[in-house]
Amino acid sequence: MPHSASAKKRNRQNLRNRDRNRTAKSELRSSIRRVLEAITAGDVASAREHFQGATRSADQAASAGTIHRNRAARIKSRLSARVLAASQGTGTAAVSKGGKPAEA
Question: Is residue 63 part of a domain?
Fold first, then answer.
């Protein structure tokens, strides 16, 4: 346990920020999952809709410092490629267990 006043305050801040970061990361993972599920179901319109939400979540998490901005860009790029492939009917939009692209 912290003893000094500054250490106690820092501990309170860390706990508050940890909860905020967990919420942001959870929302990001959920929005990514919704996009991938829509692609797997073949619902391109829904996938595009959810992609916008995932993009927003990634940008918000990056601007808050919860995730790195390059990670946000990588998430958006990979999801965008999958949504585009699904809309064109290409087989590269397949998703394997774990959310990674299926091996062809």
Answer: yes
Write down the pLDDT at residue 104: 36
Residue 38 included in any domain: yes
* Nearest Cα to Cα of residue 93 among 31, 30, 41: 41
Which residues form the domain of 22? 5-90
DSSP-assigned letters across all residues of 6-49: HHHHHHHHHHHHHHHHHHHHHHHHHHHHHHHHHHHHT-HHHHHH
**Average pLDDT of every residue of the chain:** 90
Pick left, alpha or beta for residue 42 (phi over 0 → left; psi -120 to 50 → alpha; otherwise beta).
Answer: left
